[in-house]
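Q: Sequence in, structure out?
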Amino acid sequence: MSGQPEKMILRLAVIGGTGKEGSGLALRWANAGYKVYIGSREAERAQTKADELNAILGEAVITGMDNAEAAASANLVVLSVPYAAHRETLESLKQHLVGKTVIDVTVPMQPPNIRTVYVPAGQSAALEAQSYLGPETHVVAAFQNVSATHLIDLAHPVVCDVLVCGDDVDAKQNVLHLVEAAGMRGVDAGPLANAVAVEALTPVLLYINKRYGVKGSGIRITGLA
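A: Exactly. Output:
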């Protein structure tokens, strides 16, 4: 294992961690030295995925749990679920998220039109999450534009930037550190309101993937040192 975890973030829960994006991030954070819990509606399913990831790492450092247990056990929670399950999941976990930072990876989409931008009633999934959870929980939007294609391969560099939006300075700084721990460059993209634009980039990238026959297009911000 490589790297050292940031002192203020010791335990991470990835809700929706059995999916490609969530499991890829969980793997990379565990590899960087974090204690990671994978959450799923079914604890058995979560543990099966955890066992698969632990086999890659060569040690049992990821634990599978049901969503509520994972959220309660962690001091930072990552939400990586389909938009259709977004509100229900947050409302079921609200009591376990008070006072914590929540990284919302969710992108609003209306299948089958996943390559067309959809702006929900609350403008963005992250803004809706903040509204559902209240001011005592700090929602940060990040990782929406990262393809899951290469996350699971620890030897493969993920060559893209991660735009990070949030209203709490400390919460956003912790997330920027997690971006680096996962092997990417984080870019402070402003307040949570800017998540509207960041989330909307994902359907655009999916369109580009199909149009040009690629699997993992991403974004890079030019002009930064």
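Residues 11-212 form a domain with the Rossmann fold fold (CATH 3.40.50.720).
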